[in-house]
Structures are given as structure tokens and as C-alpha cells.
Amino acid sequence: MIKIAPSILAADPLNLERDARRMMAAGCDWLHVDVMDAHFVPNLAFSPDAVRRLAEIAAVPLDVHLMMDEPEKYIGVFLDAGADRLTIHAEANGDPGAMLREIHRRGARTGLAIKPGTGTERVAPWMGETDLILTMTVEPGFGGQQLEEPVLDKIAELRRMGYRGEIEADGGINEQNLPRLIEKGLSVAVMGTALFHAADPAEMMVRLHAMGAGVPEK
Fold first, then answer.
1. Fewest CB within 10 angstroms: 56, 89, 193, 211, which?
2. pTM
């Protein structure tokens, strides 16, 4: 079954708790939290305090995505705040392997992300050290963008390369294009605007999960 991870970036900033609870009540699998430093991407979002407060109410894993120039400095901070999964970018400064090993050492799940313009060869050296590979399907920074179709082939390519962990996609995913992502080998869909603006998120969640009913657990 496809996992659905609503992106808190699309929530009402004055009602984060309300919207997070709404998504959990609707049956989401994870909550996705984007952390942006206004350098690596042109936006600023979510502090360790926000993650800590979400962790206090979360009944599902917190999937924290560090979109930062120097993620190594903040790995401990966000793990202490309550991140269950911590994703760093292959394009960021530092040694990805060392950071992934540190996240594992701290008892959390790891993720390695690439932007739309980055090839899958960038993550190849660390495929055996990461639990998840995140393929950004839009340029990271802002919600509400349209999915970039050429990125879909990266998902299939990662599966052809033998990657058996979770493959996550983030950006412009909706009920119409999700089936094509699943066909390529996607196992986790980060959804923002489409889900938070749905008239009935619980009803939509049932339909989304049904799309991946034939996908084996990773």
C-alpha cells in the first residue's frame, strides 16, 4: 500500500496542530515536515521547536526533510526534537555517508534527497546506507507547484539500479498523477495542497491508499 505523508508546509500556519490532527484522523501514514534555511532553497520554514511540538501530538512518524546548506550542524537538534526520519540532500555541504551513519547511530531512519536537476548517480554511493531516497518532483522551496514529468523516470531508474528501500516523491502530487508515480515504483507520496484543500481528506486518503494496493511493502 502506498504511504501518504501530508506536508505540513501546506497547513494553515495559524492552525498547525488542528491541521496535523486532521490529517492523522484522515488516516495518513507519516507527517512530512520541510525545514528550509533560506539559502539552500529560497524559503524559510519550520524550526526545531515546531518539530518538537508536532512530536508531542504525532501518532504517526515525523518525516523531517532538511533543505539546508549544512545539515550536519542540525542533525542532533532535529533528532532531539523528535524526528523519526531525517532526510538530507545529496547536493548539500558535508559527507552524506557520515551524516547517514550518524542518523542511524541515533536510532532514526535515514533519507537522501535529490533535486529535479540532479541525476540518480548522485545517490548511488549511499544506496546501501539510506532507508529512503526522496526525488523532488518540483524545485524545492514553495508549495503549490506543478509536478515535473521527466522526474518520474528517476523513480524507475532507482528501482532498476536495485534500490529496495522507500522511494518518496514530493512536489505537485495529486490524485490524478499519483498512479503514474506508483507504476514507476514510488512507495511514499508527500502531498500538500491537494490533500489539505480536499473537501474530505479521509475520503481522499482511502482512494489514494487503494491506488497502491498492489505495491509490496518496502
1. 56
2. 0.94
